[in-house]
Amino acid sequence: MNTSRLIFLALCAVIALAWAGCGPADRAAFHAAHPAVERPWIGPEYWSNPLQDWRIREGRIESLTRRENRNVALLVREVAEGKGDVHMRVRLGAIASDTPLPDSGRAGFRIGARGAFHDYRDTALRGSGLDAGVTALGSLFIGGSSETAGGVSSPALFTDGVFPEEGVFLDMRAIEQEDGRYTLRLRLGNPDGEVLGSIEAPVDADALTGGLALVVDFDTDGLSGEDTNRPSFWFEDWQVNGTRVRAYPERAFGPVLFAMHTLSKGSLSMTAQMPPLSEDDAQEVRLTVRNRGQWEEVGRAPIDPMARTATFSVADWPDSLDVSYRLAYDLTSAAGQPVEHILEGTVRRDPVDQEEIVVAGFTGNNDLGFPHADLVRRVAWHDPDILLFTGDNIYESIGGYGYVEGPLDTAMLDYLRKWYLFGWEYGELTKDIPTVAIPDDHDVYHGNVWGAGGKATGPGATKKERQDTGGYFMPPSWVNAVQRTQTAHLPPPYDPEPVEQGIGVYYTDLVYGGISFGIIEDRKWKDSPKMVLPAYLEIENGWAENRPTNPPEALRAPNADLLGQRQLDFLEHWAADWSHGAWMKFLMSQTIFVNVATLPQTAPSDVVVPRLEIFDVSEYAPNDRIVQDMDSNGWPKHGRDAAIRAIRKGFAFHLAGDQHLGSTIRYGVDAWGDAGYALCVPSVANFYPRRWYPPVAGANRPEGAPKNTGDFLDGFGNHMTVLAVSNPYETGMEPRNLYDRAPGYGIVRLNREARTLNIANWPRHVDPEDGAPYPGWPITIGQMDNYDREAAAWLPQIQVQGMEDPVVQVIDEVSGEIVYTLRIAGATFSPKVFAAGSYTLRVGDPDGAMQTFTGVRSAASPDASVLDIVFGG
């Protein structure tokens, strides 16, 4: 540190004492201090908006742009209601002190910041308050902004627009008056201790209540793109005190921001999500566990330089115990010393003997309602055993400030900021509950992503045109880093071979609580319809715009990929694998294998959805049509049919999201009801409120059931039975654009003894303790209902001795294909088959003894004969 800067800091201290008085120190007083490192992340006490536009360097906070409303929120202090005073001071200056800043530039404080959802995280992200500070010309201001008139201001002090090289000292004091209002007094001092100017303004006491921040603000009108990307102001020695200031140290966020883990087959995988750190900061995270009252280190993991993740894999985990863990990181302090910071949680035991397993499902994590504290609280009431985030865990627009496609490092920081919001929302759940999170299109900055085997998108005049060529338009290293943040803690992929461009894969299986979860990527191999369908269809973004509805046959593309052969092979393997005590199959993917949606007859595509009328719950859209949205996995039909044929062989249930419309449907391949059930969970915060108002009532629906339930063909000719749907409706709650769009989450309860699944989509606004799911739910189905295809013949009834709940596998001896595999309940089972013939039966425990019976002939009835099977005798 140079001599002049030391002299200046000493002078600042003298000025501060003169202005602050000599009263006793307030326990809530705050004094910013930063290490001498350079990094984008300012520290655990702060939230910067946006992350990529700020850094710390040489102990200062620096703003790297000249744009609107860049700010750094102080998380750990807040101005409370009541009587008293508030005092803030900071040293600030221009980063390029020899070059004039644009006249519209302003820097200073924000006080009384509040968000719409009464949570400090919402305040830090979007809170508005009273700004006070100094302009680039040295004019003090209280209130107003760079774009609006209003407030109080003083004449310019720096007529040449150049800040003093050593900066200025800005001091703000809120002084209570006898009438209960306040005088807000703002002063500016120079390095010589001289007070250069001051202004004051009356403010209401309530205007001070809320969060605190540093602010940089420019009117960008008239500024070139190059100008807006230049650094602007720096801040140093930010201090806060006063009798209305309250301390909240527990609100610090980081450096271990959040954690996710899975526990499967005796192995633990855990990811610690870290902020962007400096090369001079520590580069590893430690995992310790509590054993007999002592903390023992079980591993260290390096921090990935792009994803900023540290991932641990621990084999032979003691999965019969609840294990307390700590993720520890040594953060460099302002004094240059390492200080240990800890995130603590619990790896719960594998609930293999638990009667009921509760699964919570999510999609569409938009930021309206951030930080979703109401939803998180209601999900916690259900005490889920596992959390499934099916995609769109972030959106490009969340948190404001748009999104950045390049350069690469900046685009990565832009994504990470949005991903950190996810952890800020759900971290209290994910640190203790096994979590699966998989990316969908918006997670990789696509409106729709046609992965096309991982290739790069082709050229196009617009982003949408490029997207329609298929593939990914973000760099593969960026895509891989996104996948690492969300999926690095999953079990190893079934086949780890990357796709084109070296983009990794993560499709895998996970066994927890006796549930065998299949996790697939239903976008990565999917072809773009524009590239495989005739040009006359005028495909744009997955919609044929030549006419409102085309014959389903016109949209058939027999060579188009949906899941890709690799994932179909995986599904065949997974459906047949009932090892590790699995008693139920549960598939998770981004979206469902049908298209449950309607639009007005005149709408060419779903671009109109955000503007559609929302009806009262008793009303019905009068003139809708069933749509053909190829972003749904109802297309391509042959790929959809192949996927369902594979998963029904394991009697698997399917949970997915993406469609912005909660539904429970039953798949059909050749006929209605010949395959399993699926739950499409509603969006957490729905900005795209799709709906299902088919013009003709569904067939074969129960008496009194709604018109939009029953048997339908979707727009691609796929058989589907709609059991329930959560259309948007007028709730009378505010904000309407949150609550009237049918937001919520899904809950599935799997019962081991009864072999049932209780399925429900829950409204976000309903307290589950005394409320109910959306109308039409809950729905209870049996495990066998997931392949309730009509039998053509029967094999001998199996009666097993010496083993309870054995696995039964039926193999067609002509084709060599597995017909299905199932862990039965009990010891007696009558296997049905779908063609008369000769079959092989395999019965037993895949983790122990299996017996094989070949040449087993089918019969016309289930009780024609008995096959006695004895184990252990």
Could you write a compact summary of the structure shown?
The protein has 873 residues and is mainly beta. Helix content is 13%, strand content 34%.
How does this model look, in words?
Strands 1, 3, 4, 6, 11, 12, 13 and 15 form an eight-stranded antiparallel sheet that branches. 50% of the residues are buried. This protein is 13% helix and 34% strand. The protein contains eleven helices and 51 strands. The chain has four domains: 3-251, Sandwich (Jelly Rolls), CATH 2.60.120.200; 258-347, Sandwich (Immunoglobulin-like); 356-445 and 473-787, Purple Acid Phosphatase, chain A, domain 2 (4-Layer Sandwich); 793-870, Immunoglobulins (Immunoglobulin-like, Sandwich), CATH 2.60.40. Helix 5 (408-430) runs parallel beside helix 7 (476-487) and helix 9 packs parallel to helix 10 (637-648). With 873 residues, the protein is mostly beta strands.
Number of strands: 51
The major β-sheet equals: 8 strands, antiparallel
Uncertain regions: pLDDT < 50 for 5+ in a row?
1-25
- Assign the CATH architecture of the largest domain: 4-Layer Sandwich
Beta-strand portion reads: 25-35%
Gap from first CA to last CA:
83 Å
Number of domains: 4
CATH superfamily of the largest domain: Metallo-dependent phosphatases
Helix content: 10-25%
As a whole number of angstroms, the C-alpha radius of gyration is 30 Å
What is the CATH class of the largest domain? Alpha Beta
At the fold tier of CATH, the topology name of the largest domain is Purple Acid Phosphatase, chain A, domain 2
